[in-house]
Write a structure and sequence with these properties.
It is built from 23 helices and 17 strands. By secondary structure, it is α/β, with parallel strands linked by helices. The chain has 2 domains: 242 residues, Glycoside hydrolase/deacetylase (TIM Barrel), CATH 3.20.20; 208 residues, Rossmann fold (3-Layer(aba) Sandwich), CATH 3.40.50.150. The strands form 3 sheets. A 7-stranded mixed sheet has the order 13-12-11-14-15-17-16, with helices on both faces. Helix 22 runs antiparallel to helix 23. It is elongated. The N and C termini lie far apart (61 Å).
């Protein structure tokens, strides 16, 4: 396995039968720092169940294979017990990191995808490991009780911050009880351990009474998360990391754990020899194989997706009836609904699984929304054709036209959108630009990089616009006003040129820190088109806005 060229952070927590007040406490710290943790559960917890249902955390299981375990007396019994608590868990870490071939094979037999059952404290360059069971193993970089058992240790962040920022897996493990108590040492924990069972009865006040007042586990966690957040460093779940790296192993990972489609060169060739209807059906089947609950399931580059949403939000002010054609699993519309108050929002997609995912994401995120999107499984081409004339305020396409089977079908849909928009209505097309795509490849060639293929097995159906031709069509033939043309030239120059040059001979990764920083930088400067194929065309229909 190749080295990882950036730090990849995951916050995990072994619950270890912690009182609910302690679980609530560590989760609040995670939320305040924008982190989605991974909890390894030893028991059924009302708080964990709520957190999981709301999409705020990943839940794995934390089996106890030690003598006298309440989980069972044999490997089979223990595995069955913890999976009975959380049957959808895809990760495990044993209490005390206890491991054996029998344990791993029994979990693999149940369909477990990965574990984090190995602690390699403060070792540089950690990477995912392929276990003999067929599962992927994610070693732990730092753990609180391992830390305070070292001969020399400090609860100051600065002396070792550079170790945390070095490339490699940075899986951190904090126990709720040690965070709640701010445990500074083994001896302190031993002195208060007998009083912990009272914490549930007295709640947060009891925790505060027992908590160590100096530097310890809690102060280290809070300071470390704060420092990383100030540097715009992102945390992932283990499910995210598994999706990133599953293709690097010679295994057959479940497709729903990846944003890739595992298509071959022959699939690519077959697509372009199909009829238009057959192409559409192949694309529909492809998207139905994706993981619908992954927010970025329709776009592997999450930074690019967030930049698109960032730009789209600025163009939506005052829009009241919005239709998102080819909405996927609804992530963009749900993101817009956080800021648009009282808008009527409809998302259309022909992939049944993605619409199911959209409704799931909607329920998980409903609390902070100011509008309530509605998602419909339908053929978006037919849907827009059946919209009444002058009935819609705003239409959004985000790489929907890019995946239509022909230029004629693209133009047909745009014409139907023009008809359906009210006077003063707006079409926002976030689609592919062949001009920007070619300019990006010229820049890559100037730095000795291979050209990006126009389409391939990993990018099956891309049909980008000739900028001049599509702009001539929408303005001269349809009568749209081209209000703006936004792009992400700086972002693409950094992520598709500078980043690959810096990591040669390694392959660049979407989750590299330089990509996260490129997105932040692009958000601070003008959104200029010219380099990179993703362009936002902002088209207004002439006339005064008025609903019938």
């Amino acid at each position: 396995m190749n080295e990882i060229n950036a730090p990849v952070f995951v916050l995990t927590s072994d619950i270890d039968w912690a009182p609910e007040a302690c679980i609530r406490d560590i989760h609040q710290i995670a939320l305040e720092n924008g982190v989605q943790p991974v909890y390894f559960a030893t028991h059924k917890s009302a708080i964990l169940s709520r957190i999981h249902q709301e999409g705020q955390a990943e839940i794995g299981v934390h089996p106890n294979f030690m003598p006298g375990s309440s989980h069972g007396q044999s490997v089979d019994e223990v595995v069955a017990h913890v999976l009975g608590l959380y049957p959808r868990a895809t990760a495990f870490r044993s209490h005390g990191f206890i491991d054996s071939t029998q344990i791993s094979r029994e979990f693999a037999r149940t369909g477990m995808l990965y574990d984090s059952n190995l602690c390699l404290y403060m070792q540089d360059g950690l990477v995912p490991l392929l276990h003999n069971s067929g599962m992927v193993r994610f070693p732990v970089f730092w753990e609180d009780d391992v830390h305070f058992l070292q001969d020399e240790f400090s609860w100051e962040v600065d002396p070792t911050l550079h170790r945390f920022l070095a490339p490699g897996l940075k899986i951190l493990n904090f126990h709720p009880i040690h965070v709640a108590l701010n445990t500074p040492s083994e001896s302190f924990y031993a002195s208060v351990k007998g009083r912990i069972h009272d914490v549930d009865a007295v709640g947060a006040a009891g925790i505060e009474e027992l908590r160590f007042r100096g530097k310890g586990t809690r102060t280290f966690l809070v300071e470390l998360l704060g420092r990383l957040r100030s540097m715009s460093i992102r945390f992932y779940t283990l499910a995210d990391v598994h999706a990133m790296f599953s293709r690097r192993f010679d295994t057959k990972p479940k497709k729903e754990s990846s944003r890739l489609d595992n298509l071959t060169a022959s699939d690519h060739m077959r697509y372009w020899n199909l009829s238009q209807a057959e192409r559409q059906e192949m694309v529909r089947e492809m998207y139905n194989e994706r993981n619908p609950s992954d927010p970025y399931t329709t776009s592997r580059d999450y930074n690019q997706r967030e930049l698109e949403i960032f730009a789209i939000k600025q163009l939506m002010a005052g829009r009241r009836k919005i239709v998102d054609l080819g909405c996927g699993n609804g992530y963009t519309l749900i993101s817009l609904a956080r800021e648009l108050h009282g808008a009527e929002m409809i998302g259309i997609d022909f992939a049944e699984k993605l619409i199911e995912g959209a409704n799931t994401l909607l329920e998980q995120n409903r609390a902070p929304l100011q509008s309530s999107p509605r998602f419909v499984c339908a053929d978006a081409i037919q849907f827009v054709a059946e919209l009444p004339t002058a009935s819609v305020d705003c239409v959004l396409t985000e790489r929907f036209l890019l995946n239509l089977p022909s230029p004629a079908s693209q133009r047909h849909v745009i014409a139907e959108i023009h008809r359906a928009l009210i006077p003063g209505g707006r079409l926002i097309m976030c689609e592919g630009s062949m001009d920007g795509f070619n300019e990006l490849n010229k820049l890559r060639a100037a730095f000795g990089l291979d050209v990006i293929l126009e389409n391939s097995a990993d990018n099956l159906s891309s049909l980008r616009f000739d900028d001049g031709a599509i702009e001539q069509y929408v303005t001269k033939e349809l009568g749209f006003i081209l209000v703006a043309k936004h792009g992400f030239s700086l972002f693409f120059s950094i992520t598709r040129v500078l980043h690959p040059v810096l990591v040669v001979p390694q392959q660049p990764t979407f989750n590299a820190r330089i990509n996260d920083l490129a997105r932040k930088l692009q958000e601070k400067v003008p959104l200029t088109a010219g380099i990179g194929s993703n362009v936002l065309w902002v088209l207004d229909k002439p006339g005064q806005e008025s609903f019938p």
